[in-house]
Amino acid sequence: MRNRWSSAEIPDLTGKHIIVTGGNRGLGYASVVEFAKKGAHVVLTSRSNEKGEAAIAAIQKSVPNASLATMELDCSSFQSVRAFAAEYKAKYGTKLDVLVNNAGMMKTGGQHPRIETKDGHEITWQTNVWSACLLSQLLLPTLANGATHEAPARIVFISSLLATRPSVKINVDDLENDTNVDHDFGFYPNTKCADRMIPNALTKRFEATSSLNGRVLAICAHPGFSSTEMTNGVGRVVNTLLGMPASQGCLSQVRVATDPNIPSGAFYGPNTLTKISLQHVLGLFGMMGHNAEPEFYGSPMPSALVSPFASDEELCEQLLKKAEEIIGAKFELA
Fold it and tell me: pTM for the whole thing?
């Protein structure tokens, strides 16, 4: 039987400062709950303070001593990302241990209407990838400031099972073109593949930098098939009956954010304990792309999901350079 990591193994987080983007609902909300239970001060972001305050009130009913704050952040706007980073640094100075880039959106493109942001980017790419990169870059000095080799800071990106679909295309010179979308899921699978690739490239960058090597980790996780508002598109009945609850689905990102034994560049996801399950049936029909064993359910473990794009170091670096070009800044310390 595989080792079953659970929330009981989250270490004491007293004194830690953690940001969870999109922390007012779904997997972000569930992650905030787990961090708060262990004593961390968590800043959860949402598109409005009203939604954030409502989330805090709900969490404090089950975690009365939770140390929480909410701040506005709209990841479809670079202006909002920059304003959030400036506000966070003004309020907390150099106190930041973990950034969880959880906020995301699912369906635009393909059979769904294409939406462009005020910054001129396809909204799924900007929300899921470019804004996560910009926020990570803006907060990199803050993360690095108090980090040590014994207690490194962490940047967490969130990927997806859909990142390994056969339809995924990563053409760095033409990422947001409508010809590169999945008919059923739009740009989402491509963006989630990119969210797996960026930490790989960042890890190589950080390892080559004496001021960051071993002190700031870039890590990725995926939640398997978790039942949230985002996955309602598969059908509410299917979502409810077959998806893990968010309290379980969040554990992959919670683990990579807190487990002291996680190395930079790691990729974790849930892995089932049985060889007979829906995920293996779907695997037989090629639903999971290049992977013999999909990872819908279970406890968080090092993921075995295979992506030819994420395995290509040169392509990962090219994607990171494209992200730097788009956000107008490089991942380096002044």
Answer: 0.91
